[in-house]
Amino acid sequence: MLNKFSMLQPKRPQNRLWGWLILSILLVGPTIACSVGKQGAASSNRVIWISRTLPTLTPTAVAVAQAIIPSEAPDSPVNAPASAQTLGGQPTPILRPTNTPIKVAAPAQPAGRLAPSPADLASNAPPTPTPDSSPVEALDPTPPPPVPTPNPESAAPASPEINVAPNGSEWVFMGVQISYQDEEGVIIDGDIINNTDAPQDIVKLTGTIYDSQGQGVADVDNDAAAYWPLETVPPGGQVPFEMTIYQIQDIANFDLDVVAQPSRETPRQDFELADLDPSIDEGNYCVTGKLWNRGDPLLDYLLVLVILYNDQDKVVNFGTYQGNSPEEVQNDDALNFEVCTDSYNQQIARHELRAIGL
């Protein structure tokens, strides 16, 4: 610039030229320096835009967060320096923030703990059912199936009911049931009551045994073994009986009757019983006590009976005790007795003692 400026000056004499030249340098030098500074400042105001492409970052398995720099420039712009410093003859660039968004990578998951991506979660989620807008017919609840009612003619009752003897006799059967049953057959127990006006001698028991189909399967006269401990039954008196039927398991009902004839003898039942003590020992039901005869002396027999009943007043079993010398039981001479029978492992609700002599 100085050389250019000197070339513009007019030529003058040599001596005066050097004087004016020195004076011009002293006067014009600062001005040129200022102009050069202004020109440098003006040139420094030029904004140099540098476009730099950042490396593409691959997102990890987690959601990517973006940090966006505000698009508006800050209120206080960056002031350019008074004089630009150069490096290697090139002016130093001044960088300004741009509004290009920069993607910030999330920290990587530690080894062995991979978080599922949203796409994986969406693929594993159960499908959302689409509501059906078509009307659906309401169905009435299905009622439970009816419980079948057992037919009394085909079902075998636990305690078969006793039919009245068809011949219209005055013998009544009470408390009859199947008290015991095994592979050999069944045992039927019950009571026989004499409703006639006279003593009767029992000759035999008759009747028919029926199965659950209503078919006769046994005849009492030919297929059963019946036992009753007392042959002569006084009027209004009752005696237990036991009937064993072999090789038959299906028994649902039976018709029973008594074949009897009038007796010339009338057994006595007016004995005094006291000090009675019932007990159960290994399935045997026993009763101990004392018996007094306050009437005429006995000439034939003295029998003590114990009859066991369940809670339905059915006969479970019965036992007997017979004195060896009934004539010795007189007035204050009491008979000490113990009568026992098998309870068949059934629950005994009550027992009944009967004493009969002749």
Please provide the count of β strands: 19
Structural class: mainly beta
Helix content percent band: 10-25%
| Total count of domains | 3
What value does the average pLDDT take?
73
Order of helices and strands: HHEEEEHEEEEEHEEEEEEEEEE
Distance between the termini: 175 Å
CATH topology name of the largest domain: Immunoglobulin-like
DSSP strand (E) fraction? 25-35%
User: What is the overall silhouette?
Assistant: rod-shaped
Task: Give the biggest sheet.
Answer: 5 strands, mixed
| CATH architecture group name of the largest domain | Sandwich
CATH class of the largest domain: Mainly Beta
Taking pLDDT < 50 over at least 5 consecutive residues as the criterion, the unreliable ranges are 1-12, 38-52, 62-71, 76-90, 102-123, 136-142, 144-158, 162-167
Number of helices: 4
The gyration radius over C-alpha positions equals 66 Å
Structure description:
By secondary structure, the protein is mostly beta strands. It has three domains: 1-50 and 83-98, no CATH class; 162-262, Immunoglobulin-like, CATH 2.60.40; 272-357, Immunoglobulin-like, CATH 2.60.40. The chain is 13% helix and 35% strand. The chain has four helices and 19 strands. It has helices at 2-7, 14-44, 118-124, 220-223, and strands at 65-67, 86-87, 90-91, 102-104, 162-163, 171-182, 185-194, 200-210, 216-219, 224-227, 232-233, 238-246, 253-262, 272-281, 284-292, 302-309, 315-322, 335-342, 350-357. Strands 5, 8, 9, 11 and 13 form a five-stranded mixed sheet that branches. A hairpin with a 2-residue loop joins β14 (272-281) and β15. The protein is rod-shaped. Mean pLDDT is 73; it is low at 1-12, 38-52, 62-71, 76-90, 102-123, 136-142, 144-158 and 162-167.
